Amino acid sequence: MMARRYGLGIWLAVAVLLLTACGGPAAPGADPAAGAGGERTIRHALGETKAPANPQRVVVLDTGALVDAIALGVKPVGAALFGTSDLLGYLGAKTEGIKDIATSEEPNIEAILALQPDLIIGSKDQNEKSYQQLAQVAPTVLAAAEPGAEWKAYFRFVAEALNRQAEAERLIGDYEARVAEFQRRMGDRLAQTDVSIFRSRPEGVDIYSQQTFAGTVVREAGLSRPPGQDNMTKFSERISVELIPRLDADVIFWVERNEKEAAGGRQFREQPLWGQLEAVKAGRAHRVSWDVWVAGWNITGANLILDDLFTYLVEGR
């Protein structure tokens, strides 16, 4: 492992934790009771790490891992919650008591140390830079799967880290059964329905491709995308007012994160071209939740998107 110089305060904190943990050698931040179930070796994006077989004090470094852990029956002691107040409303009170360890990209090492975790879970995409520091605190595993479109692989990685693989497969099976039920209830209309997804911006709108989280769920549900959206290779594409016709589909879903985006969206939808879209004229353009369709890249968010598809395409047809 490459040596790296850290701040003196961090090393002092590590030393204090080591001196106070059972009076003998222990992994930094480890809870002595957590290792009672033995150890396992977890393969991850940056190698292999030995971790407790049944971790008791878990810290997660992004909201996807947080929601996945809760779905698997594990409540983390800490999570990267800074700036996420508008992302997790669908969890209700389930995040109460979880300590904020700042942002995913810049986690507060001292705050994590104070929690004495026995396992830290994150992703290579967001946490590779801080990995060496985090690994000094507790066993740290980083997923190779990127948050977003690879949400299912990410969920399975979180489950493996938590030793909850059987529960994860059960939840994925339940989700896939709901997908099959949606397809059954759509019947012949499934092959005849395409869906457009966009996000309002102050300066236009972003069309979301099939490479987004919502795009993967819509595709798994068996819904197609309209011409021009079905072959997009990027995450999203910004369009201006004159390209509004590119948004048309049998059904349109759009999201807005805040009032600034909502104001831009209202101006956009006041344009004459918007009113000429077939989906708009038919009353099939729907605003949906940003925190679910964009930021909810997890098993819970996927099921909530399915809820919307049932609501607007099956029950509200």
Describe the protein's topology.
Elements (H helix, E strand, L loop, with lengths): L7 H13 L18 E6 L2 E6 L5 E3 L2 H9 L6 E2 L19 E2 L8 H6 L4 E5 H4 L3 H7 L2 E4 L7 H12 L2 H22 L8 E7 L2 E5 L4 H8 L15 E4 L11 E5 L3 H11 L2 H4 L2 H4 L3 E3 L2 H4 L5 H17 L2
Structural overview:
With 317 residues, the protein is an alpha/beta fold. It has two domains: 8-163, 3-Layer(aba) Sandwich (Rossmann fold), CATH 3.40.50.1980; 185-315, Rossmann fold (3-Layer(aba) Sandwich), CATH 3.40.50. Helix content is 38%, strand content 16%. The strands form three sheets. A five-stranded parallel sheet has the order 5-4-3-6-7. A five-stranded mixed sheet has the order 10-9-8-11-12. The protein has a two-stranded antiparallel sheet with strand order 1-2.
Give the low-confidence spans: 1-35
| CA-based gyration radius | 22 Å
Write the CATH homologous superfamily of the largest domain. Answer: Nitrogenase molybdenum iron protein domain
Distance between the termini: 58 Å
